[in-house]
Amino acid sequence: MLRDLTPTVKKLLIVNIVLFFVSAFIPKDLFALHFIQSPKFHYFQFITYMFLHGSLMHLFFNMFGLYMFGSILERLWGGPRFLFFFIFCGIGGGILHEVILYFHDFKAIRDALEGVISNPNSEYLKKFFEDFSGGAETNLVNNNVTGAIEVYKSKISADEYTMVGASGGVVGALMAYAYIFPNTEMFIFPIPIPLKAKYLVMVLAFYELYAGKTAIAGDNVAHFAHLGGMLFAVILLLIWRQRRDFFY
Questions:
Q1: How far apart are CA 92 and CA 86, in angstroms?
Q2: Model pLDDT, residue 48
Q3: Which of 36, 49, 143, 175 could form a disulfide with 233 if both were Cys (CB 3.0 to 4.6 A apart)?
Q4: What is the 3-state secondary structure (H, E, C) of 93-104?
Q5: Spatial CA neighbour of 66 closest among 164, 167, 163, 187
């Protein structure tokens, strides 16, 4: 199996595995992708988050997917083009993740905070802290506009909204494989029958959309990052398809 590794995929595997084991000795929080309005956010996190993983299983599945689909794409495109594609899809996953956080997850608290700032009276403040402070604030003397802003900063900096993992790039590679080889039959556990690659990515896309919209407590999978990787993969493939100096 190791003989099938292509050079760029091999280097990506080594970097991810090494960083996983040394992440205990580096400021991991600095390189994970935070919400764009968080004080912890930096633009370089759109790239660095792809090389960190939260658990050994998280690392294993992403690296297995990278090996399975990345090696095929690198043989087809060459190392530089595949690496660009992988990073592009990973950034795309991060972008869609941030967009959903801004316009969905944090919309209610952001609107409420804007209301408090515009009308800093006790009723607005009381409702804000009742809805978003988790019951921690009970004394309205301390529940002022500054306190509301601190609650907002605490929410947007919470670990549950921090993202790590190469999933955006890996799922983008899967999308590219299905785009180029749509009728290749594949097995996906636990389904006992083969599915053509084009149907597999359709099922995956609908699942990620459903899971992302109905996310339950304890689900720490960034479903919209996966969708972002798929979306940016399609965009780049369509751009490349229009170029006369590139074919597949």
A1: 10
A2: 95
A3: 175
A4: HHHHHHHHHHHH
A5: 167
